[in-house]
Amino acid sequence: MRGFVDASGRAIITIRIASSRQDSGHEINVWIDTGFTGDLVVPRGIVDQLALHQTGTTDGVLADGTQVLLKTFHCEIEWFGKFRSLEVIANDGEMPLLGVGLLLAKVLTIDYTNLTLSLMPAPKKSSG
């Protein structure tokens, strides 16, 4: 998976998100946020546009330490050629955030000189 670094220095990749596997969904740019330990945060406008189904709420702590209650929604994302079911968090932000939960077992390389990035599955460890 390839991405880019934008003019603000944010590492960006494009993913496909949908309400179900039968829905073609939309491609969205997401900001890779290694300070976010969850999977995906999506602005409320995108949640509404895709008509995602609310599944519950979760407690969250914002960067400034504020504790908040956030709504969660079910979605499907295309992730390395396969569909993956996720519970995403909705917020009032403008840019979706992709967190560490989706980066596990991946190798993220960001090249700030060439403003590129790659996200690849981690190599399989040899057994012995």
Report the helical percentage: under 10%
Report on the biggest sheet. 6 strands, mixed, barrel
Q: What is the 3D form?
A: globular
- Main-sheet strand order equals 2-3-8-4-7-6
Cα radius of gyration in angstroms: 15 Å
**Count of DSSP-assigned helices:** 2
Please give the number of β-strands.
10
Query: What average pLDDT do the residues reach?
Result: 93
Beta-strand portion reads over 45%
Helix and strand element order: EEEEHEEEEHEE
Description:
With 128 residues, this protein is mostly beta strands. Helices cover 9% and strands 54% of the residues. It contains two helices and ten strands; from the N terminus they run ββββαββββαββ. It has helices spanning 44-50, 100-103; strands spanning 2-5, 11-18, 26-32, 40-43, 53-61, 67-79, 82-91, 97-98, 106-111, 116-121. The chain has a six-stranded mixed barrel with strand order 2-3-8-4-7-6. It starts with a strand and ends in a 7-residue tail after the last strand. The mean pLDDT is 93.
List the helices and strands and how they pair.
Elements: E1 2-5, E2 11-18, E3 26-32, E4 40-43, H1 44-50, E5 53-61, E6 67-79, E7 82-91, E8 97-98, H2 100-103, E9 106-111, E10 116-121
Parallel strand pairs: 3-8, 4-7
Antiparallel strand pairs: 1-2, 1-10, 2-3, 2-6, 4-8, 5-6, 6-7, 9-10
